Amino acid sequence: MTTRIAVITAGITEPSSTRLLADRLAEATVRALGGPSAASVDVIDVRDIAHDVTNHVLTGFASPELQERLDLVAEADALIVSSPIYTASYSGLFKMLIDVLPKDSLRDKPVLLGATGGTARHSLAIDHALRPLFAYLGALVSPVAVFAASEDWGSTEAGRLGERIERAGGAFARLLTGAPAPKQVDPFENVTPFEALLADVTGAA
């Protein structure tokens, strides 16, 4: 059975680091699930439907283009979101789309959180803004999220960001499948007993 994943990305620039983060989170999740045969991805770029979202907020009616995207979210098995952080919170455009989603469409739906910002000072916005929002909506929020600051895309930090993305994708895949977390290697599991060390020292003396 193929897992249907909807991706909401709220970047407003072109190209967008917010979109890039969303794409890489989706790719990591699909890999962890077993590849394209195990999961399909539909991307909803809020920038493309900004006017439709605004009109829906004002009139209560969705255009056909917006309704198509709202249906993708409602019918998806899982959701990946990525929002830029402005003034320590998610963007207003992102929140507007969330506000017009069908009632209870996110209830019990697994959600992976991602966010981008100019500096690492905004990193806590995932925990004090995004996570409470989706918890309120009844979603099953993945415990591992990714915040990417501008410097994280640099050559010296890109590797670490990639590791965090892979970790988040793996954790989200386990949430979707119910698979157990990989066993952690105990660095003290095969430590030489103190008595043996002492015997070696005594024998050498």
UniProtKB/TrEMBL annotation:
Database matches in SUPFAM superfamilies: Flavoproteins (SSF52218)
Pfam families hit by this protein: FMN_red (PF03358)
UniProt keyword Oxidoreductase, yes or no: yes
A GO MF label: oxidoreductase activity
Key word Oxidoreductase present: yes
InterPro entries: CE1759_FMN_reduct (IPR023932), Flavoprotein-like_sf (IPR029039), FMN_Rdtase-like_dom (IPR005025), NAD(P)H-dep_FMN_reductase (IPR051814)
Residue span, NADPH-dependent FMN reductase-like domain: 3-153
UniProt entry keywords in alphabetical sequence: Flavoprotein, FMN, Oxidoreductase
Gene3D superfamilies found in the cross-reference section: 3.40.50.360
Name of the protein: NADPH-dependent FMN reductase
